[in-house]
Structure formats: C-alpha cells, structure tokens
Specification:
The complex is a heterodimer of chains A (about 450) and B (about 350). Chain A is mostly helical and about 450 residues long. Chain A has 15 helices and six strands. The chains are: A mainly alpha (about 450), B mainly alpha (about 350). Chain A: It is a multi-pass membrane protein.
C-alpha cells in the first residue's frame, strides 16, 4: 500500500477511535450539570450520589479522550505536511483557539471536578462542572469550524501557486461562520448529547433489570430520558438543515449520499439500498422523488447527479458514503421512536414495567455511537477526492518526507495500542458499572454528616 | 508591528513562552513519573501520583497550545518538523498516551500486580516522553538537512547524533530533579526526607551531564554559541542559567523547596532561551544548505492571521493564567489522600 492509503487509514482509525470519547464527555458533561444542579437546588443526597458516580465514569472517559486526542493535534504535521502548509493560516488558527479557549478551560477545572469535592464549596464545584462542560462544547466549536472550512471554504484567498500555493484568511468571521459551520456544529453537539444520554440510560436500565440501586437508577434514567427525547427530535431538524446545506454547497456529496447519478432526473430518497458504481444505478426501497422534495419541496425537480462531475472529481466510494449516511439516518429515526415511546410510558407511569424495553435501552448505547461514526464517515468520504473541497486533493496533501514503511510502523503501533486501550476501557467501565453508585446515608440537613458520610462513601477503589 | 516588534518575532516569542511554560509545568509531571519507581511503598506512590493528579492534564494542555501555535503561526515549520521527526514524534505521542492512561488506570484495581504493572508503564512512558522531547530539541538546535521545498531530506539515523543524545539525557536529569523538588514541596515526613535525598542525587546527575553537554558543544559545535559570544548583552542568559543551576543545591541544602523549585524552573526557561537566542531567526536550520533554512519570515502565516493570533493570545493568556492559578491554589499545600484521590 502507498503512503496515501496508509495515511488515510491511519487518520481514519485514530480519529474514529478518538471520537468514541469526546461526544461521551460532552454528553455526560451536560448530564452532570443537570444532576449536580438538581443537587444544589434540592439538597437531596440522591442527586449527590448520582453526580459522584457519573463523575467517576466521566474521569475514565475523559482520560481516554485526552490520551487519544493529543495524537490528532500532531498528525496533520506528521502525515499531512502539504495540507498543513496549505491550510495552516486557517486551520491552525482554529486549533490554536481551541487549545487556549477550550482545552485550557476544560482541563483546568477538571482537576477541581474530580478531586475538589472536599476542597471547595459545593457552589464552586458546580461552577467547575459547568466550566468543564463549556470547555468541551467550545472544543467542538473550533474543531467543527476547522472541519467545516474544509467542506465549505470561505473568507480566504489563495496565495502563490503550484507547490507554494496556500490559503490565507481574508475575513476571520467569514471563515468561522462558513456556510456549513453552524448547521454542522449543532448536529455534532446534539449527537454528543445523545451519546452521553444513552450511556446513562443504558447503565440505569441495566440496574433496573437487575433490580439494583433502584433509588438512584430510576431518577437517573428519567433525567437522561428527558435529555434523549428532546435531542433526538432536535437532531431531525439539524440533520435536515445540514442536508439542505450539502445540497447547496457540496452537490457531489449530496448525490453520493443518495446514490443519484442522472442530473436531468428527479432524485429519489432511499430507506435502504445499494449503489452500483459501474452501472451507475442504485436499487432498494425508496421514496420516488423524495430527495427532490426534501431539497426543493417538489417531487419532480431534477437534482444535480454524480454525472455532472468529472470522474476524478467524484467520491470514489459512493456505495460506502451511501451506506454510512443511511445507517445514520435510520438510527436517528429509531432513536426518536424509542425515546418518544418511553416518554409516553413515563407519562402513563409505566416506564419501568416493561423488561424488554429496558433490555433495548441497555444495548441502545451503541446506536448514537454508531450514528456519530457513520455520520462522520459519510461527511469525510463524501468530500473526497478533496481534503479541502474544490481546492486541494487528498492525494496532494501528504508529507513528502514520510515513507510508506514509516506509516505502516506507526499504524501497527496505533492498532496494538488502541486495541489494548479499548479492552482496558471496557473492562474498567464494566467494573465501575458493576460496582455501582454508592448510597450515602440520609442524615438530616443540618447535622454534621458531611464528614462521616464522606469517610464511608467509597466511590473510591483503593 | 506592535511595540516596534514585527508580528513574526512577536509570535516567535509567544511560541517560545508556551513551550517554556509546557517544559516547566509538564516537566515536573514527567520528572515525577520518571522517578516514580524510586519510591517503594504503595502509599508513597499514591501520594506522588496525587501530587500531580489535579494538575498534570492542565499542564499537558500547554503542549496542545504549543502545537496549535506553531501550526497557526508558522505552518511551514510545523509541517517540516513533524514530518521530519515522524517516528520520534509518534513514539513521543504514544508515550504520552501511556502516561495518561497509567495515571488513570492504576488506581482502578487494588491488586499489587495490577498496580506494579501500571507503575512500570508510567515510569517507562515518562522516561520515553522526556528523552524523545530532548532528542527533538537537540536536533532542532543543531538543524536538520532540508531540501528546497523545506522538507526533511535525511533518514532516521540523522536524529541519533551525540549532541542530541546528550541533550536528551540532560533533559531527563533536569526533569527528574525538577520533579523531585516538586514532590518534596507536596509531601511530608519520611517521604519528604526520601525525596530530598533523591532531589540532591538527581541534581548531581544533572550537573554532570549538563557540564559534559556544554563542554561537548563548546569543543565540537562552537557555532551553537556564536551569537552569545558575539553580543556581550546576551551573556545575561547563560549567567542567569548558571546562577539558577548553582542555586538549586544551595536551596536544597537549606530545605527551601519553594525556592529550589523556582530555581529549577528558571534553569529550564534559561536553557530554552539560550537555544532560542542561538536559533533565531531560524525555526529550523538547514544543516546541508543554510539557504533552505526555515525562518520566522518564510514560515509565517499572513500578517492578518498573525495579528488575529496575537489578539487570541492576548485574550486567552490572562484567562488561562486566572484559572490555572485558581486550580493550583485550590490544591496548594501538602497532599492529603481522600476518597476522590487516585
């Protein structure tokens, strides 16, 4: 395999593995803010206990996010040196802003979130939790801005030509608010909220099935269900807005998402299907003219197809783009159905009566994870063959000084290291879940219970 | 231009300050990790881990900021340096991964074998990270072969020259001294006594390798001290450095660990300033053909972006300063283990 293929595999692998964790951190961050906020508001121990339990899980997830994230910062330089030179003026600014505005905030207050429970007042601790959550949200802002600029470049001009060509910012805010930034950011944020909410749902559904920790599991489940229901629905809107944007800004990607080739015809919308690139046909279960309707509110209007683009300007893996996109959409729909149904049962007061529903929730933790990954794969593979849409080809973006053997060595190292990390992560996560939240004794509000309950409160594991 | 200094030079100063901040802050974390196995008792190891527990992650962020600052301000240098150092950089990064997970995973199981495994991983990772940092620093100071496209034109063998290896070992010795001093500040009783002895020994180790590296540099790579020799005003940097180095054993002897810590921090900063003075205005000197060197001018982003970056730094730095100080202040004093500790 050549440097390009290996570098693409390595980038995809390292970023996909990394992306298991940050959405969970963002989503759990939101849930922690809600839980700890409820604790401060009501003073009920139950909320303190659940907050402390999820902080422990948050620490583990956050740790892996940090460990795998630091690679990403440097992988542009190691493997994509030409890209780095080309976009440094723009992409680098976003990364620098992320470091100073997001990571510093997040990592600074993380120390207090994890270790400060007995050192600062509960209000300061709550403030730290909010800061960690905001830091993770800001981090998403800058990363999505940087990536969106690759999808829909704006606020720049090209200086120099040939090997020395590079993009320079002409308008910082036009670069930040490029045509796809806002739609994609809200889509990413909500995807993260869902990832976090479904983790909390899964763990608590498990406790409910096992008849353990019910006093904590039920209210925790309800908090997460509320978050999951609201944002499953909201995701439909941000998804639709993103698709509208893709139609305007990246027609080749839109055509690939639905496997649409013929520019003179109305475009269909598939529920599931298969794209045959050679025969330029797509077959499957479809709504005829559905994509035309989605974009133009009319079933007959033609939509630009892949044929409108030169073969070298089309995504090469059309079927993969199609499949990833459809997996994401199908999961989005499933999450809406699942959360609406559960919320309806909640309203009727029978939420926890159906064992099969709790079993589904235990496994549903995987759904937002898969949807998040599939969405990014569709977005990134759909942008090909460009690394910066219409400006720089992926094949031109490599490090000329790096040889295939070097990339192969690092790819093997990453594979081994990350597999080990994944196994250890799942092992420790499971251990924490099995151990469960620790109930503190419920003393009266004004006795000096703080100290003794803390001493007995061993979320600790030493 | 700002205060009579051009944007590129200003950004060089900002980048240098961030790198220095990283070396001082993560330097004590890495040093504490590298000496971790010298501490024998389970409780000592836990106290040592919890001494850096609430802060190491924030300290590592300085590296992320440094990476972003180089990428944004000097993309040509960012591209050349990391593609040149491909494998050392990967080893450095994988070392950082293991450092992070070792700290996080160690406390999650009570078994002595589990803990010993992670202690070894932790120490090994910190040593590897520190050595590869030092190796890269040595090579940047020395320069690398670059082609006309300002891309690396050497092989793996290029990195393993005597000077860079000596710089790597010196970095390790300095970080271990720095880490031992930090831990001494955060501990009490017998562990404190043990750390004071370790700090003194590491400091001797540092003095020896530092002297050897300096001697080697003066004898065999005299051009690395050209600029300091040509301008008497620059003598202030080696002077401060030597005073700070001399002050470390003095403060150690008196038991003033706070001052010793300041001295080791100043030593780290002064060493980096000395390198920066010699290197400037190059970011990466082309050892095969000086015309191919990457300088702060031919590597810089557009002036508009440099202005934006300086504004970002001007807004961001005070904020970072405020919450970093707040976190350090919250966890000031000797380490006390509680149920939230590692």
């Amino acid at each position: 395999m050549d440097v390009e293929v290996l570098s693409r595999i390595q980038f995809a692998f390292t970023i996909a593995f990394h992306y298991i964790y940050p959405p969970l951190s963002i989503g759990l961050g939101l849930i922690l803010v809600i839980m700890e906020g409820l604790y401060l508001k009501t003073g009920k121990k139950i909320y303190e206990d659940m907050t402390r339990f999820w902080i422990k899980i948050f620490a583990l997830i956050f740790g892996l996010g940090v460990a795998t994230g630091i690679i990403m910062e440097f992988e542009f330089g190691t493997n994509w040196a030409t890209y780095s030179k080309y976009v440094g003026d723009i992409f680098g600014s976003a990364l620098a802003a992320e470091g100073i505005f997001a990571f510093a905030l997040e990592s600074g207050f993380l120390g207090i979130l994890l270790f400060g429970w007995n050192r600062v007042s509960s209000k300061v601790h709550f403030f730290s939790t909010i800061m960690v959550f905001l830091g993770s949200m800001f981090s998403a802002v800058w990363i999505v801005v940087a990536n969106s600029w690759q999808q829909t470049p704006a606020g720049y001009h090209i200086v120099g030509d040939g090997l020395n060509a590079r993009a320079e910012i002409t308008d910082f805010w036009a670069m930040v608010f490029n045509p796809s930034s806002v739609d994609r950011l809200t889509h990413v944020w909500i995807g993260a909220f869902l990832a976090g909410a479904f983790l909390v749902l899964s763990v608590n559904a498990y406790y409910i099935l096992k008849n353990k920790h019910l006093e904590i599991a039920r209210p925790s489940f309800k908090i997460a269900l509320a978050v999951a229901t609201i944002f499953s629905l909201a995701q439909l809107f941000t998804g639709h807005k993103s698709a509208d944007g893709v139609a305007v800004n990246q027609p080749a990607k839109l055509a690939a998402l639905e496997g649409h080739f013929d520019s003179t015809a109305a475009a269909d919308m598939y529920l599931l299907g298969w794209v045959n690139k050679e025969s330029q046909t797509t077959s499957g279960l479809k709504i005829p003219g559905g994509l035309s309707f989605l974009i133009h509110y009319d079933f007959k209007t033609p939509v630009t197809g892949l044929n409108a683009f030169k073969p070298e300007d089309r995504p090469s893996q059309v079927n993969a783009v199609f499949q990833f996109y459809h997996i994401m959409v199908a999961i989005g729909m499933a999450l809406i159905a699942l959360t609406l149904y559960a919320s309806w049962l909640w309203k009727r007061g029978t939420l926890f009566d159906k064992k099969w529903l709790m079993t589904i929730f235990v496994w549903a933790v995987l759904l937002p994870q898969i949807a998040n990954q599939a969405g990014w794969f569709a977005a990134e593979m759909g942008r090909q063959p460009w690394v910066v849409y219409g400006l720089l080809r992926t094949s031109d973006a490599l490090s000329n000084a790096v040889k295939a053997e070097q990339v192969l060595i690092s790819l093997i190292m990453f594979t081994l290291v990350y597999l080990t990390l994944l196994i250890l992560f799942l092992y420790l996560l499971n251990k924490k879940i099995q151990h469960g939240p620790v109930m503190t004794e419920h003393h009266g509000e004004d006795d000096e219970s703080g100290d003794s309950s803390r001493r007995q409160n061993p979320i600790m594991h030493h | 231009m700002f205060l009579g200094i051009d944007y590129n030079t200003l950004w060089f100063l900002v980048f240098g300050a961030v790198i220095t901040g990283y070396a001082i802050l993560d330097g004590f974390d890495l040093g504490a990790g590298a000496l971790h196995l010298f501490l024998k008792k389970e409780k000592s190891r836990r106290i040592a881990l919890n001494a850096i527990g609430p802060v190491w992650d924030g300290n590592e962020v300085w590296l992320v900021i440094a990476g972003g600052a180089l990428f944004a301000g000097f993309p040509v240098a960012y591209a050349a340096v990391f593609s040149a150092f491909y494998l050392p950089a990967m080893i450095f990064l994988i070392g950082l991964i293991w450092r992070a997970v070792a700290i996080e995973f160690r406390s999650k199981e009570p078994g002595p074998k589990w803990r010993l495994t992670w202690d070894i991983v932790y120490t090994f990772a910190c040593v590897v990270v520190t050595l590869s940092l030092g190796l890269m620093l040595g090579n940047v100071a020395l320069g690398l072969p670059l082609n006309e496209q300002k891309e690396f034109a050497g092989g793996m063998g290029t990195f393993f020259n005597p000077f860079s290896i000596m710089v790597a070992v010196t970095t390790l010795a300095l970080f271990m001294t720095h880490g031992a001093i930090y831990l001494a500040m955060k501990t009490e009783d017998r562990l404190y006594t043990r750390l004071t002895i370790l700090a003194k020994n590491f400091n001797i180790f540092f003095l020896v390798v530092f002297a050897l590296t300096t001697l080697y540099t003066l004898l065999y790579i005299p051009h690395l001290s050209d600029k300091i020799r040509s301008n008497p005003a620059y003598f202030i940097f080696p002077a401060i450095m030597l005073l700070a180095i001399a002050n470390i054993p003095r403060q150690l002897k008196k038991g003033n660990y706070g001052f010793a810590f300041i001295s080791s921090s100043v030593t780290i900063a002064a060493l980096l300033v000395a390198v920066a003075v010699e290197v400037f205005p190059n970011l990466l000197y082309a050892s095969n053909n000086p015309a191919n060197s990457i300088t702060i001018d031919n590597a810089a982003s557009s002036q508009k972006t440099m202005g934006t970056l300086l504004l970002i730094a001007a807004i961001g730095t005070p904020l970072v300063g405020i919450y970093t100080s707040f976190v350090f202040w919250t966890f000031k004093g000797k380490v006390k283990l509680d149920e939230t500790s590692y």
